[in-house]
């Protein structure tokens, strides 16, 4: 914090409240961070809910907070906490359609009986469809292997032309069946799994109630990831090791029902808490680039809590790649295959500055770091600049939406590029000044729970490993003008 800051009373109260907390308070090492609807669907770099819960609790002691925003909402952790804390309105934006689906499902409290009834009906329908297609499900892998003489683990043949082979399979049997068709579907799914997923999708599409349908779609999305040929521990698209694929035999229907059953219980506990509130929270979820927020009214937000990306999707967390197979199966909001493939390019830091860049960003810390990276690798410096240029625009547009004296909590990780540690916490403080933001306090936290690539080789020397991120900061800013 700079010495010139004039602390208002609320700042001082908040700082003393924070300073009273033990050093490891923000680590939440032993907590179940997947309770309530927080446990519905995985997402990369989720911000564990106790962070936003505690920040909201602390701020509420000193300010009357009615509106909350998370402009990089991801899977909606902050929004769920906003709903639970009784906000009048919560706003979230994200360019990833899967993030919007998950967030809208996690924040909409659906009655247990209503979901249970719909899911029971779905399972009856599913069992009947499975019985109809049983012989096909059990013979398709053999058809591809033995009649078409194809290797179902190969990239070419089945891997690149799966829809054509499946069409032939159904035509031979004189059966009308809608074959899903997207690039490399055969590379990512076994023949039997494609038919099973399509049967589940057809059954889901028969449901009329949009809220229930979306709730079930989220379980379907998780099933798609789980039964695909992807390595599930990775957010990027890596396939299960080739030698393991021939024995890979996921039980698609059981996995789907297991996930659905778990999600129903999570929703029940969320519903029970929401039901105790006097008034429902209005939730607004927008498909917007945070650099140009247009739907949220200016000067309307009391509190912002967010965790933005750590860097561009290509070299840090690829949210689009994580979501790809789910989105290809979901047919959400009529999102085209091209826009699914392009998600990562459109997220922060997606613009490439191959021919250099002119840095006019108001951060001495960033300027010095960019200078050092440029000396080693001009193109990487361009990538880093691209990310902070977008971040700067986001800070500007977010601040425009906020009321005077409102607080912004930025949960950020400092990563290392070309051995240069990028102090995003300081860069945000510096960039914020020109938009009327004053730095109030910064909390440091370890991130034991976060699923993140903890090591890579930013210097690109084979075998060299440098820890990219060991801790995070929670940067607290207040809009003073
Ligand atoms: C770290 S994640 C947020 C995770 C979230 N806190 C949670 O708990 O799930 C960052 C999110 O920012 C989104 N994002 C990146 N660039 C964006 C942009 N320019 N506009 C809107 N959303 C963006 C990504 O799609 C991603 O979902």
Ligand inventory reads: S-adenosylmethionine
Report how far apart the termini are. Answer: 18 Å
At CATH level 3, the topology of the largest domain is: Rossmann fold
The poorly predicted ranges are 449-469
**Estimated share of beta-strand residues:** 5-15%
Structural class: alpha/beta
CATH architecture of the largest domain: 3-Layer(aba) Sandwich
CATH superfamily annotation of the largest domain: Vaccinia Virus protein VP39
The order of strands across the largest sheet is 3-2-1-4-5-11-8
- Globally, the shape reads globular
Helix content: 40-55%
Biggest sheet character: 7 strands, mixed
CATH class of the largest domain: Alpha Beta
- Radius of gyration from the CA trace? 24 Å
User: How many β strands by DSSP?
Assistant: 11
* Helix/strand order, N-terminal first: HHEHEHHHHHHHEEHHHHHEEEHEEEE
In short:
The chain has helices spanning 9-20, 49-60, 77-84, 97-107, 112-147, 158-172, 185-188, 191-205, 210-227, 252-275, 319-330, 337-341, 343-346, 364-376, 378-401, 424-433; strands at 67-70, 89-93, 282-286, 301-306, 402-413, 416-417, 420-421, 437-446, 455-456, 466-467, 471-479.
Give me the secondary-structure topology.
Blueprint: H1 9-20, H2 49-60, E1 67-70, H3 77-84, E2 89-93, H4 97-107, H5 112-147, H6 158-172, H7 185-188, H8 191-205, H9 210-227, H10 252-275, E3 282-286, E4 301-306, H11 319-330, H12 337-341, H13 343-346, H14 364-376, H15 378-401, E5 402-413, E6 416-417, E7 420-421, H16 424-433, E8 437-446, E9 455-456, E10 466-467, E11 471-479
Parallel strand pairs: 1-2, 1-4, 2-3, 4-5
Antiparallel strand pairs: 5-11, 6-7, 8-11, 9-10
This protein binds S-adenosylmethionine (SAM).
